[in-house]
Amino acid sequence: IEAAVQQAAAHFGGIDVCINNASAISITPTEKTDLKRFDLMFGVNVRATFACSKACLPFLRQAENPHIVNIAPPLNMDAKWFKDHVAYTYTKYGMSVCTLGMSAEFAADGIAVNSLWPATTIATAAVKYNFPPAIYARSRKPEIMADAAYALITQSARETTGNFYTDEQVLASQGVEDFSTYMLDPAQQPIPDFYV
After folding, report:
1. Is the pLDDT of residue 46 over 90?
2. One of 88, 136, 165, 195 is an active-site residue; which one?
């Protein structure tokens, strides 16, 4: 990770934004979650978020409008979010905890740290292979998250940090009212994401 960050900074002349988007998923109850799968989710979701953010810090401190964006759900300690898939929720919330802690830790440096999460299911491989086809068919295109991330990172880092946003919230604040263009099938109604 450190070598990749150094190479990126050397090639592009610095780093302005770190988006922790990589994620591993296993929607399984405790007894059906292999420890190897748990370790993978913890390594990708929590450890990599921490490590990538840490490696980018020296460059983010030099940037004009530095942002860290974690693709992580809003923190909600209600047991209903954990009971069916403790391991996955635990690791995704680990990313959310990074948002909470790092936003306060780096506030004096002017580095924004926020979470961004889809308000609905998104047509990704994770949804395609972990949920019924009807859910995938009623999902939004990944472009909604890309547009929301761009809108977020172009805001003032000093004025926008420590938040748990949904893609809809960010885009609505930019004046977007019609989200049907993001649907795979605009005639369908989207399915809310299960952490929202």
Report:
1. yes
2. 88
